[in-house]
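TA notes, week 10

Several of you asked for a full example with nothing omitted. So below is the full record: structure tokens for the whole chain, then the designed sequence directly under it. When grading your own attempts, check the secondary structure regions first.
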């Protein structure tokens, strides 16, 4: 199965590459296919299961499943999918390997889903793609083989689509909340310019060494408050990450949010990584942990939104 390749984009500074979800997944898959331990386990599976005879690596398993489908051998297709899903529900390296291979089998279908769901929800491509892939990982790991032992591939695809739609619908609610959050405190924060970097964030003027230092100071303060990691990529103007951190720092300073509430908002809304060495994972692909984090972020946003009179915080500025 040919992998879908994407060239890393650059952020507004044109110096930091941003690796999208499919790029990172393809790169991780290439690493797995070169893993000698994975090759040993696949060879062992092939020795135990005639349907995998001759397979010597993860891509061989994907190719065999595709071949069964093309020949119309749906029983053989189901047998191999059953093997993968059954092992994926276990523990250890075997389970992890089967899990990764099963999701790889679903990859063409998930990419098509991402394209259609992006049109439906109007969200950024990579957010939708990460959501669909995260849903695929979730449904493979939790698929009820005892109740649905047939048409496994089709069932996994349907379950992935249904879970994706639920997550994206919730995501739209969260996007609206964070937009209201920003809109609600931005006027006050702008009026109290002493703790703000808005003149740097929104300025159309060319970068200067002074503004670069101010952005570095904003990032340092955010790291000290544990809103971001210590090795977070440099901030640049006109990006949502900079604006959200700016608003959160101000809200904490004037007492509109507690530090822990700001941390929850930042952890959720700024959860994707721009560092190529870090595995891409968004909160919307984290299953139960992501749901819990989303709830914490929503609660923190509501804390700010339900303040009856934010003007009372001006005195603290």
């Amino acid at each position: 199965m040919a992998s879908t390749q994407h060239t890393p984009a650059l952020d507004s500074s044109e110096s930091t590459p941003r690796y999208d979800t499919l790029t990172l997944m393809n790169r991780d898959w290439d690493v797995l296919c070169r893993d000698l331990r994975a090759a040993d386990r696949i060879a062992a599976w092939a020795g135990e299961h005639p349907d995998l005879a001759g397979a010597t690596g993860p891509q061989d398993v994907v190719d065999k499943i595709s071949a069964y489908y093309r020949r119309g051998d749906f029983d053989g297709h189901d047998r191999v999918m059953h093997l993968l899903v059954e092992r994926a529900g276990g523990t250890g390296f075997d389970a992890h390997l089967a899990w990764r291979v099963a999701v790889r089998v679903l990859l063409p279908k998930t990419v098509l889903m991402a394209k259609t769901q992006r049109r439906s929800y109007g969200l950024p491509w990579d957010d939708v793609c990460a959501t669909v892939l995260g849903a695929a990982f979730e449904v493979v790991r939790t698929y009820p083989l005892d109740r649905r032992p047939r048409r496994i591939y089709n069932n996994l695809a349907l379950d992935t689509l249904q879970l994706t739609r639920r997550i994206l619908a919730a995501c739209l609610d969260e996007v609206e909340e964070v937009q209201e959050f920003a809109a609600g405190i931005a006027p006050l924060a702008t009026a109290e310019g002493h703790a703000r970097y808005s003149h740097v964030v929104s300025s159309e003027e060319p970068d200067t060494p002074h503004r670069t230092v101010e952005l570095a100071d904003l990032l340092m303060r955010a790291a000290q408050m544990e809103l971001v990691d210590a090795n977070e990529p440099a901030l640049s103007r006109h990006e949502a990450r900079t604006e959200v951190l700016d608003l959160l720092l101000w809200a904490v300073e004037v007492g509109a949010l507690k530090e822990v509430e700001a941390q929850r908002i930042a952890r959720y809304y700024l959860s994707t990584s721009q560092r190529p060495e870090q595995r891409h994972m968004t909160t919307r692909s984290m299953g139960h942990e992501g749901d819990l984090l989303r709830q914490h972020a929503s609660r923190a946003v509501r804390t700010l939104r339900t303040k009856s009179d934010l003007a009372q915080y001006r005195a603290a500025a």
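The first helix runs from residue 21 to 33. Use that as a sanity check on your answer.
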